[in-house]
Design goal:
By secondary structure, the chain is α/β, with parallel strands linked by helices. Helices cover 43% and strands 15% of the residues. It is globular and about 80 Å long.
Length: 689
């Protein structure tokens, strides 16, 4: 915060403290405070309050504005009340659980002002940390500070172009981490023939924090400074280096800042090297390798998100041993003993598989939906039987306050009896009031949000394109562009789709990034853009530069959320949960989380959970089912308004979407599940006082 010292008038000087805690990112009044300071700059700087405070010229005037100062004091009271809470859920249920959970993830999607995420895995991690803060769960996240983040997407002539921008920590809501004596923290990890130094940064997220590791510092060579440049960039050498940074460097960063976690949580296999570092620590203190492995596994939990075998990181023997020289001796074992911890036989030979390592060195393991649990058991059943383990499932959820539109939240406050729905967001009974909201008011609130969202989205389409029509049934599809998500399924029969859309009755909005190396997924973007310019012009729109800001607008403002992955390859998915929270029903294949939510009244189900058909036959069958549901159910219901102008039947489905999805698929429920079923049972004795 030092570089803000002197810029802020004393009357509003705590704005710097607020700017450096992402509490503001899920509290609308705090966002309004920053926006009111300089509305134009707030938008231009992508809702980044640190950059806003550094660049605005309006600070003296704001300090003399009585209305601004009143809002400032109200926000700061709410911030202080939140940060000083003593009566939290965790404190009531597990009052003796003191040491933190260490939550490791390769990406954290906390806010668009911190572009160190690519998609669902990162956003889930960010929502996990926020709900841990809301519940009072002591948790510290560990990740990587990517100097160029994930790429900005530009689409030119249907071709995705990746643009990387420097990430300057000094203009972001991020601060250097300090050791207990107040010094800035730098840790080292071994790379082939050298030591790599990592500066540790800190993001404050309510009462929690996330530590981020950064190799872009003068102590490293020019080449080594790029090791943390890009998320999911580079070759296998970069990948193993980043995973050593995350796992080994992450444990050392925790020790350096004075944290002694009770339990370690690996969010995907990227973080699995943390277990080797913990074994090394115990062996150095005199514990045998076998006993160290047992103790580490007992206090470690692992979440797998990947139902596709190719998505699990694996390294060749040559590459592994190049980077792991000296580790067998440090672990008190032989090379064969270390290799056995991650050994996996593939068609092309032996590899060191990070998921195998994570499975072997964890005592609790979970998939992220009921279907994904079955898929994971099929994929890893031989390993689980060998180690005598099992896999649970905790279905993913979303952080309500990060994704619910402010307009809808205000409407809910008006009709809820008290604050129960806010304080116990995962209690289904607390949401029953939604059924009593007059259809006209729910519909009008949605229309206002939709108009705002489509106005924003229209600016991402590009010059010369017609804008989105707020009067049309708007169906959204926005997510990472991987081929199994079948973004182009809708294009099976363009003529039939055009007939469904009619004249201004239906429009489709697509957004998403393809991984830079995923040529087939980039082909999907080209195909969609071509269709948007030709046979589906005016009814299909492709937006560029998908990020959390665009995602927030779409899930809050579209009428229906479309999801059509190839079953059973969607581990969970959460975008449809965000849309349902805002009253947009799902039109989805029965995969991931949707089979656990769909009840016939809260949206529509496409096809089954997978068949013996070929991929081409399955695509044709699912596309036909999708068209038929649109023709016979979705479009007539949406455009079936009576004399009042309100489509009562449609609003009934909106209500059911909110009531059935909002409580059951919140990260508040999800984090409670992790605490009850994984964190407390696997916490070391040091975690309790």
């Amino acid at each position: 915060m030092a570089h803000l010292t002197g810029r802020l008038p004393r009357r509003i000087e705590r704005l710097s403290e607020l700017a450096y805690n992402l509490f503001w990112s899920w509290h609308p009044e705090a966002q309004r405070l920053f926006e009111r300071l300089d509305p134009g700059l707030w938008e231009r700087c992508e809702h980044n309050p640190v950059r806003l405070l550094l660049e605005t010229e309006n600070l003296p005037g704001a300090a003399d504005d009585a209305g601004f100062v009143d809002l400032y004091h109200g926000v700061m009271r709410a911030f202080d009340d939140y940060m000083r809470r003593r009566d939290t859920w965790m404190g009531r249920i597990y009052p003796d659980f003191r040491a933190p959970v260490a939550y490791f993830s390769a990406e954290f999607g906390l806010h668009e002002s911190l572009p160190i995420y690519s998609g669902g895995l990162g956003v889930l991690a960010g929502d996990h940390v926020k709900s841990a803060s809301d519940l009072g769960v002591p948790l510290v996240g560990v990740g990587i500070l990517y100097a160029q983040g994930y790429f900005r997407q530009r689409i030119e002539g249907g071709v995705q172009r990746e643009v990387y921008e420097p990430f300057d920590p000094r203009s972001r809501p991020i601060l250097p981490a300090h050791d207990p004596d107040g010094g800035e923290v730098v840790v080292g990890v071994s790379m082939p023939g050298r030591t790599l130094y990592l500066k540790v940064w800190e993001v404050r997220v309510g009462i929690c924090r996330v530590l981020l590791l950064d190799a872009d510092i003068p102590q490293n060579s020019v080449e080594d400074r790029t090791l943390t440049a890009r998320l999911y960039g580079g070759d296998a050498r970069t990948r193993i280096a980043q995973e050593i940074i995350l796992g080994v460097g992450g444990v050392r960063a925790l020790r350096a800042v004075g944290e002694r976690p009770a339990v370690f949580h690996m969010n995907e296999g990227h973080a699995a090297f943390l277990s080797l570092e913990r074994v090394r620590e115990l062996v150095a203190a005199g514990t045998s390798f076998k006993e160290a492995v047992r103790r580490v596994a007992a206090s470690t939990v692992f979440t797998t998100h990947t139902p596709v075998p190719a998505g699990h990181d694996a390294f060749s023997p040559g590459l592994f041993w190049e980077f792991m020289q000296g580790w067998p001796e440090a672990l008190g074992t032989t090379p064969e003993g270390l290799w056995a911890l991650g050994r996996r036989d593939e068609e092309w030979g032996e590899t060191f598989n990070m998921t195998v390592l994570a499975m072997r060195l964890s005592g609790g393991r979970n998939a992220v939906s009921a279907i994904h649990r079955k898929v994971t058991e099929d994929m890893w059943g031989d390993l689980l039987r060998e180690i005598g383990g099992r896999i649970d499932h905790i279905t993913n959820g979303i952080h309500t306050w990060s994704w619910l539109s402010p307009e809808m939240a205000e409407l809910f406050d008006e009709y809820a009896s008290g604050r129960a729905w806010r304080e116990a967001v995962d209690d289904a009974g607390a949401w029953s009031f939604v059924e009593e909201i007059p259809a006209s008011e729910l519909w009008e609130t949605h229309r206002r949000v939709k108009k705002r969202a489509l106005s924003f989205a229209s600016r991402r389409i590009g010059a010369g394109s017609p804008g989105l029509d707020p009067g049309a049934l708007t169906i959204g599809f926005a997510r990472r562009f991987a081929t199994y998500k079948r973004a182009t399924l809708l294009l099976q029969d363009p003529e039939r789709l055009r007939a469904i859309c009619g004249e201004g009755r239906v429009q489709f909005v697509f957004a998403g990034k393809a991984h830079p190396a995923d040529t087939p997924a980039k082909g999907f973007i080209r195909e969609l853009c071509r269709a948007a310019e030709e046979e589906l012009s005016g009814v299909l729109f492709v937006l560029e530069d998908y990020d959390m800001n665009l995602a927030r607008h779409l899930v809050q403002g579209v009428d229906v959320w479309l999801n059509n992955p190839r079953p059973p390859l969607e581990a969970s998915g959460t975008s449809g949960q965000k849309a349902a929270l805002n009253g947009a029903p799902n039109l989805s294949v029965l995969d991931g989380w949707w089979p656990e939510a769909y009840d016939g009244t809260n949206g529509w189900a496409v096809g089954g959970e997978g068949t013996s058909l070929s991929q081409e036959e399955q695509d044709a069958a699912d596309a036909d089912a999708l068209y038929r549901i649109l023709e016979e159910a979705v479009v007539p219901l949406y455009h079936g308004a009576g004399p009042s102008g309100v489509p009562e039947g449609w609003v009934g489905v909106m209500r059911r979407a909110v009531v059935t999805v909002a409580p059951a698929f919140s990260t508040q429920r999800m984090v409670r599940d992790y605490v009850h079923r994984l964190y407390v049972p696997h916490a070391s004795s040091e975690g309790f006082s």
